[in-house]
Amino acid sequence: MKMEMEILYAEKIGGGNYEKSTKIVHINRRKSIRNKCLDCSDYSAKEVTNCKFTDCQIYDFRSGKGTQDPKARSKAIRMYCLKECMIDQSYEVKLCPSVDCPLYPFRHTKIDKTHLLQKMAA
Ligand code: SF4
Ligand code: SF4
Predict the structure, then answer these.
(1) Domain residue ranges of the chain, discontinuous segments joined by +
(2) Mind listing the pLDDT tens digit for each residue in 81-114?
(3) Under a CB-based contact definition with an 8 Å cutoff, are residues 25 and 119 in contact?
């Protein structure tokens, strides 16, 4: 099933540059990590490529490319939410109010479709 959500999205503006927008997009783990990294790096693809934070939980997946490995990406997202964002408070991750965060639907081991379903009902 295709999952569409309104997220903070890195819109391509040419020359390898991006700008911040909010858009309804088909989301998957690969795209969600790439968008999170672009958001973290002021929408500079170069900054993402040259990221120095090798211990960041989603570092290995920041390019948005590479082999399909949903399990590893899920784990990386979960750990990012816990370690980099919510200081090990799993309850806070659960209650995260940032529904437009690109990582939001994948912050649990199970995909959170709440926001998606609300969109479909609207
Ligand atoms: S790997 Fe982590 S620190 Fe580096 S750009 Fe992505 S989110 Fe930011
Ligand atoms: S989904 Fe929520 S907890 Fe995870 S990184 Fe985004 S804002 Fe933080």
Answers:
(1) 3-121
(2) 999 999 989 999 999 999 889 999 999 877 877 7
(3) no
